[in-house]
Hints:
Layout: H1 13-27, H2 29-37, H3 43-62, H4 67-73, H5 75-91, H6 98-106, H7 109-117, H8 120-143, H9 149-173, H10 182-185, H11 189-206, H12 208-211, E1 220-221, E2 232-238, H13 257-260, E3 265-267, E4 271-272, H14 278-286, H15 291-297, H16 304-310, E5 314-319, H17 327-333, E6 337-340, H18 341-345, H19 355-367, E7 373-378, H20 410-438, E8 442-448, E9 453-454, E10 462-463, H21 471-474, E11 478-482, H22 484-489, H23 491-499, E12 505-506, H24 507-519, E13 521-522, E14 543-545, E15 551-553, H25 561-569
Parallel strand pairs: 2-7, 2-8, 4-12, 5-6, 5-7
Antiparallel strand pairs: 1-13, 3-11, 8-11, 9-10, 14-15
Helix pairs in contact: 1-3, 1-8, 2-3, 2-5, 3-9, 4-8, 5-8, 6-11, 14-24, 19-20
Amino acid sequence: xxxxxxxxxxxxxxxxxxxxxxxxxxxxxxxxxxxxxxxxxxxxxxxxxxxxxxxxxxxxxxxxxxxxxxxxxxxxxxxxxxxxxxxxxxxxxxxxxxxxxxxxxxxxxxxxxxxxxxxxxxxxxxxxxxxxxxxxxxxxxxxxxxxxxxxxxxxxxxxxxxxxxxxxxxxxxxxxxxxxxxxxxxxxxxxxxxxxxxxxxxxxxxxxxxxxxxxxxxxxxxxxxxxxxxxxxxxxxxxxxxxxxxxxxxxxxxxxxxxxxxxxxxxxxxxxxxxxxxxxxxxxxxxxxxxxxxxxxxxxxxxxxxxxxxxxxxxxxxxxxxxxxxxxxxxxxxxxxxxxxxxxxxxxxxxxxxxxxxxxxxxxxxxxxxxxxxxxxxxxxxxxxxxxxxxxxxxxxxxxxxxxxxxxxxxxxxxxxxxxxxxxxxxxxxxxxxxxxxxxxxxxxxxxxxxxxxxxxxxxxxxxxxxxxxxxxxxxxxxxxxxxxxxxxxxxxxxxxxxxxxxxxxxxxxxxxxxxxxxxxxxxxxxxxxxxxxxxxxxxxxxxxxxxxxxxxxxxxxxxxxxxxxxxxxxxxxx
Length: 575
């Protein structure tokens, strides 16, 4: 290729001209993809989503001759584009949500590594799209490549035409049924807005210790039964467990054989979580707040740990998860005794099974042989990578060797996932056995924070925390176990649990109230109509806490017809 002196205006003119047109076309790839995937966009919103950014990108590319500098200027946008394409690979729809950014901030390095290793095709796609463009930009900047004046003029004319189309459709989009919200529907403006919201929300979360310091439940220990003076109350937080993969919930495989033979155990097959993200679902369970109250009060209200502290219990938090600088961390810091197993194991890069929680609980009980004890145990459950969550002892379903994120591997992924549920069954049984051996009146309440997609249908969705949920992400296992010594003096609680067994349940709403009611503590915010151990329990209105911390009816959460069909099959209310 012929070229002239670098100081002249037509240095590498053909290459520069190609890059001028290529830059906006590659930047618009996510916009085109979103127009295809987002069913809620009106026709005018789709036109706006392509032509308005395209016009702006092309105008910027054609504004001056130095194309290399402009390509490098747009690298942050390319990063957002790459993130968006990877997300579409995972979930098949939706923009990069606020919760997605928060997940990046609250996911530990080991978890992130497990996921990235299995996203090879998506990562290779975005690298193939944008790395050559970045390298070309570096080359063009170094060589002083310049766009010819006539090409720039043409580019500006085309950009003005695209902008006119985009602006007209932008105005008309507001007249569409349902209106138009550009900060939710126009890429990348929506993603930038979500990024700032995530930073703001993270800052508010980090201020929680100070903001909630004066909060009081005014909780009292109202239990007057002498036998309960050494009572143990245990909350077990599950991780990424799907109710429809528990044999206790009717699954065809024997994934919960130990719990299935456990006496005084009541499983609730119609429990739904009101969030598909850990950093919201766990605070919903461990606070008295409903989804409609969460956004306003979550960062100032106390948690169940505070309530039991006020009631005079010794409190403890033992976690098999890493610190994540979310509300969950701050809740744990209020416990009288706190252990993060990862603090011991991360330097050695060890994977610790959830059965370790039972061993540490046993030591805690031995150290506190008298008085009332409240303990939160946070499991690793079935969090991806599934094969890391169980040992050879629970490798029942095979083959389970290839668990890369690919729909072609679904059978092996499901085998590995089911083995992880078997490991959860073992872990819960071992915790119950520790409580049995203590001979103290004991209560255990378990619920998973959310479920998981495993390429279950034609949508080919995988993992959880997507901006819109699925049936598989919100249908969670929940159970209550009572020791013989507790059940013998509280037969009414066991009877009420049995009576409510097949009712619709919100794990997000019922956890706090059920635990407080079973413990016999008096707290003004206690709502017996949400306590599964109460005869006055009432089935909840189905709600969902969306990405913007808005409490919406489940029907408006973004569920697809396939999801409603699954809920209806299991006779789970959607109202």
